[in-house]
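User: Now give one protein:

AI:
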Amino acid sequence: MRIEHFWALIDESARATRTKEARTTWLVQVLAGRPVQDMTVFQRRFEELVIGAGTRQLRSAAWIVGAGLLLDDEFGEFRAWLIGQGRQVYEQVVADPDALASLPAVRALAGRPTAAWAEEEWPEWEVFRRLTEAVQSRLATDPVRGRWRAGDPVDVARRLPRLSALFRAAVTAEGAGPGSGCPPLPWIVSPRT
């Protein structure tokens, strides 16, 4: 998934839904219908953008907007919200955090006590946790990348046949096991046929 496709999904999610919760659900469902690689690349792009927005200047701007309430966890959700505003806004605000002052969503909060802000008005988006859970769940059920039974020598050998064979041969050649100074590696066995 190219960065353009990532931003297209972000924009489409905004057009297709009305609330942050609905938007999160929409993104998770759309990504769940795509190949697992698309899900993991989307998540990686999201993480890269969250990290890219992790400047001191933007943290200070978020602190001002959130009346001192947007701290560590909330700053991550603030950056997710910023991504949700779209590519142009994200790039503009990362380059100049003071540009937040020109966003209608931020201007609507100015001068109002935070207690009066509706849930949908808060400049935060809890999408990342749900997205991560969806990706991990999908990976766990993916037949190639799914949950491994690390203690099961047959499963390990099935998933890593060349490496298992290579190290089984190396361990045998070095005489690993009792009396050799090397512990035996009982989990490296040939897969059952």
Remarks:
- The chain has two domains: 3-141, 149-193.
- The two ends are 37 Å apart (CA to CA).
